[in-house]
Write a structure and sequence with these properties.
301 residues, single chain, alpha/beta, 28% strand, binds adenosine-5'-triphosphate, nucleotide-binding, MacB-like_ATP-bd, Rossmann fold
Amino acid sequence: MIECKNLVKIYKVDNELEVMALQGLDLTVEKGELMGIIGSSGSGKSTLLNMLGGLDRPSAGNLIVDGQSLLNMSDKELVQYKLQTVGFIWQNNARNLIPYLTARQNVELPMLLNGKRKKARAIELLEMVGLGHRLNNRLSELSGGEQQRVAIAIALANQPKLLLADEPTGNVDTKTADIILDLFRYLNNELGVTIVIVTHDMKLTKKMDRVVAIRDGKTSSEILRRKFFDEQGRELLMDEDGEPEDSHVELAVMDQAGRLQIPRDYLEAIGFESDNNKVQIELHEGRIVLLNPDEEQKKSC
Ligand SMILES: Nc1ncnc2c1ncn2[C@@H]1O[C@H](COP(=O)(O)OP(=O)(O)OP(=O)(O)O)[C@@H](O)[C@H]1O
């Protein structure tokens, strides 16, 4: 569904300063996948989502979504792409919603922009997100979690193949966040829509099969759900409460040139100083070992 290769985004600030928000990012997302993206503030998560949603254009690299290259698209094609291929859900749902319209009118609006007005479809979508009983309520009469569900129905209005959500649970409590994630999972199963969710919430990431971590504008690691097997080699399916502590494993992502990012706390554990930019790499009994060169030199004296 998504093929990002060596994606670069440079922002120009005051026509002089350049900020390299994405520094050669690689990412593949399969059709029908529900996956998460995490990373500290400023790592490039929103920039990536904006590129995927066609809200901004990449500076270089390759970005293909549903067979369409977002680098070479004309402005007209980009408008169609935004209307038909992707749906967006923001943390601040004021970007999705119009407060003085009812839930149903809000969902009808994007269909109207796409040249169709389908009352029945709007009702169907609101029922799908569990708001069949709130169709004619104005947005201001709904709770934060309910408003976010209207935002999801709006994002689905034009039957997108890809749903992008930027911190969709950032403004709601933990219980509502769980309900919203369950809703995403339900929609993913029912409609087969591919879903990419940016989140800070590590608890949410524990509920996903795959989470990609971004650091300094690059994919640094992938957190994958581990598979557990019984004595006969059959896969054990866990319910959420029965999941063990080590339900996920984190793997570093290596780029095509063999480069990988080493977590800062690992470097600190070997006494690596941040003003030093070299580590000693050794092959030891079939394992690659990183050593602090200063410590090694002291030992050999
Ligand atoms: N429009 C812009 N103009 C200039 N710099 C920008 C712009 N948008 C983002 N940046 C810079 O690009 C980098 C990545 O920003 P981005 O918003 O993608 O990070 P993020 O991981 O989403 O952060 P957060 O979790 O705080 O939202 C940051 O250094 C940011 O200051």
